[in-house]
């Protein structure tokens, strides 16, 4: 399938590359893998618990890498475009910020969500916490090998760095706390993560059961992605609020507030950019002061000698 996808991508590059300068290979592949091969809610409707979604994701990542290399080797010099991937993830916040278990569970939540696809692309392999948890659970379930597929060394090298930008889809936030699911319950994505997702009842409801307005989580996710993956260019590829009421006329004040809150959080100065600005200001200033101090000391020394 990775080879077929690469052929399809090459056809698109050839046909549309003179006009299209930003390419997204896959949009929200985590949902495609989880809903299509774990829960069966989306096509093809399979319920291969704890196995199918990892295999699908493995092939998606390799297909993405092949498409990127195809563009990089053949089309980039002619078309001067960019190729990336779009990954969706909610922000996770520990229920108890003083509880190390909740903090670890939150990190696990983010790595099983965003890191699952982003880490191979930016670091060459799956997050260590995914390899550890799924490997341990697989062994406890009597399996000889981890249910999480393994990249060969050659594949790791081939996949790492295959993104000119990170597309990020984000809608809401979850509070995270640890919950250990016994391995004897059988393999599943939920079992592998060992956590529970919660919402604050005070968060504004956006009409869909899963969607609440939590703008501050958006900023934290952006900062997380920025620091975790080496400050890549980030395009927000998905965000928005669903229909809340049945109206004959426009009545979407809640959507206006949702978009305003999330846009404002996105526009705040990112932490790394702030640090970069501070560095650009401080380093020349400190160097100038050092030169002035050295000059003054030299003048005093010459006066004393004379």
How would you sum up this structure, described in words?
The structure is a single chain. This protein has 10 helices and 7 strands. It is α/β, with parallel strands linked by helices. The radius of gyration is 24 Å and the shape is globular.
The largest β sheet comes out as: 4 strands, parallel
As residue ranges, the low-confidence spans are: 274-283
Query: Helical region count?
Result: 10
- The best one-word shape is globular
Mean pLDDT: 91
| SSE ordering | HEHHEEHHHEEHEHEHH
% residues in beta strands: 5-15%
Helix content: 40-55%
Structure summary, number of beta strands: 7
Strand order of the largest sheet: 1-2-4-7
Span between N and C termini? 83 Å
Structural class by sheet pairing and helices: alpha/beta
- Rg, please? 24 Å
